[in-house]
TrEMBL record:
Keyword Nucleotidyltransferase: no
Transmembrane segments: 43-61, 73-89, 95-113, 125-149, 161-181, 193-210, 216-235
Subcellular location: Cell membrane
Any one Pfam family match given in the protein's UniProt record, by short name: TauE
Protein name: Probable membrane transporter protein
InterPro entries assigned to the protein according to its UniProt record, in alphabetical order: TM_pro_TauE-like, TSUP
Keyword line: Cell membrane, Membrane, Transmembrane, Transmembrane helix, Transport
Membrane topology category: Multi-pass membrane protein
Keyword check for DNA repair: no
Length: 241
């Protein structure tokens, strides 16, 4: 019963953040799902729910999508996915948690320091490749896109829309590749089914929040989400060693 309550809470909060920011689901859900699931289970649940949310929101966000950069992200990600699946197959739980925490804290530090980068075609492909690797290995495709978009001062509407559209592709591909090479479990699909209604509720709340966020609040919100999750996971992984 306690695990069910924790699972529902994780999915609800992560769904709200995903809808209001475009990237928050995997950042929140993956670390905390590790509290109640094995790594492969947590990653696949995260991927399936991320894909579902992105599909459900597509109609609302399609007019804000930057299709040029979306195409480059997709093409770049195809090069990263095969390397990511190799990591997925050989995951060590403590190293996995520690790696995610360091990655999140690094991204957060760069954002807080107002990391700036000029958008180029080549960099679009590179960011897509890194995102594809992280998607198929740890189910977290969002952080590289968030860092890149923030570094190029992209509007929050375009960040959310392009990221969610990209997620439809990358999480579908990552799930198929994981199932082929590592298989799947019944508990993954049962848990996902239980979470569907919670996801719908989270989408509704998140959409209301998004309409009230200005660019500055959106950026601060991003820092808080990434840093708190990274610090928690870092401390938790150290205590398990």
């Amino acid at each position: 019963m306690e695990n069910i309550f924790v699972f529902i809470s994780i999915v609800l909060v992560a769904s709200i953040l995903q809808t209001s920011t475009g990237f928050g689901f995997s950042v929140i859900s993956t670390p905390f799902l590790l509290m109640i699931f094995h790594p492969q289970e947590a990653i696949q649940i995260n991927i399936i729910l991320n894909f579902l949310i992105s599909v459900l929101l597509f109609r609302k966000i399609r007019t804000d999508i930057d299709y040029v950069i979306l195409k480059r992200f997709i093409l770049g990600s195809l090069a990263g996915v095969p390397f990511g699946i190799l990591l997925f197959i050989s995951i060590n739980i403590n190293a996995f948690k520690l790696g995610i925490s360091i990655l999140l804290l690094l991204f957060t530090l760069l954002l807080i320091c107002r990391f700036k980068v000029k958008r180029t075609k080549f960099r679009d492909f590179i960011v897509g490749g890194i995102s594809g690797l992280l998607s198929s290995s740890i189910g977290m495709a969002g952080p590289p896109l968030l860092l890149y978009f923030t570094g190029t001062d992209t509007e929050k509407e375009k960040i959310r829309a392009t990221t969610l559209a990209y997620f439809i592709f990358i999480y579908f591909i990552s799930l198929i590749v994981q199932i082929i090479f590592a298989g799947t479990e019944k508990i993954i699909w049962q848990s996902t089914l239980y979470a569907v209604l919670i996801v719908f509720f989270g989408l509704y709340i998140g959409q209301m929040i998004f309409s009230r966020l200005n660019q500055r609040v959106f950026r601060i919100f991003t820092y808080i989400i990434l840093s708190c999750t990274g610090i928690y996971l870092f401390l938790e992984s150290l205590s398990s060693m």
